[in-house]
Amino acid sequence: MICVFFNVHPVLMLIGLVIMGGEAIVSYKALPFEHAKKKLVHLILHAIALVLGIIGIYMAFKNHNESGIANLYSLHSWIGIGVIVLYGVQWIFGFLVFFYPGGSGELRKESVPWHVLFGMFIYILVVANSALGFLEKLTFLESSGIEKYGSEAFLVNFTAIVAILYGTFVLLTALSRAPAEDNHHYSAI
Ligand code: HEM
Ligand code: HEM
Fold it and tell me: Counting atoms of ligand 1 from 1, which one is nearest the CA of 75?
């Protein structure tokens, strides 16, 4: 029963911060909507990512507390706390400056490059910290007896590789040139 709490930790962290957070970032490049709608999608997907991330971390703590394991002893957990705090701060700043009440034109213009830079930095930390989590989990499993070249070990390592590839494509998409605004008109080919 207690283990169930731990198992939801990687699932929520991956679905939340890695996948939803990644979709939020690519929304500006991938969606055929006008800018204001893309901004709303960006904001909402990041909010879902943040909430799932907070629940996922709560589950890891709950598991540790109920099984008498110490908290916050690993590099993964320290970076994890840093990541969730930065994600929350980035969301609040983004909301206040770009959405409501919204900064002046000058402030928005000056903030965008910093927002993009910090956003990418936080997302890189998210993906890297997931890899650390997989590494840690597999090390625990191997020291409790699973085979080093067994199918569970491959599953954990390949899931980590898939997460890293996904994150790489999110960043490449964010770095790519924005498509021209779609005017929703058909044209003769
Ligand atoms: C970016 C996403 C992630 C964040 C922010 C994160 C954060 C955290 C935090 C804060 C803890 C500490 C809980 C405590 O001390 O009670 C923790 C524990 C743990 N996490 Fe993650 N995690 C993430 C993804 C993952 C993934 C994908 C795995 C893969 C299995 C994982 C495996 C673990 C393990 C094994 C522990 C317990 C050992 C420890 O405290 O280091 N995590 N995580
Ligand atoms: C933790 C939450 C957030 C992260 C990690 C994040 C990350 C990013 C990233 C990486 C980009 C660059 C996307 C690209 O150029 O393709 C971006 C752009 C942007 N974000 Fe966020 N963001 C977050 C929250 C928010 C919030 C809450 C708002 C409020 C509306 C917001 C508004 C914007 C705006 C206006 C842009 C500029 C789009 C443009 O015109 O190029 N962000 N964000």
Answer: 41
Residues 111-130: tens digit of each pLDDT: 999 999 999 999 999 999 99
CB 12 within 8 A of CB 59: yes
Distance CA 81, CA 138 (A): 21
Residue type, 72: L
Contact yes or no for 89/38 (Cβ under 8 A): no
- Domains by residue range for the chain, with CATH: 2-175 (1.20.120.1770)
The 10 Å Cβ neighbour count of residue 51 is 13
> Is 127 touching ligand 1 by the criterion CB < 6 Å?
no
Number of residues written out for the chain: 189
Q: How far is the CA of 111 from the centre of ligand 1 (A)?
A: 31
Does the model's pTM come out above 0.85? yes
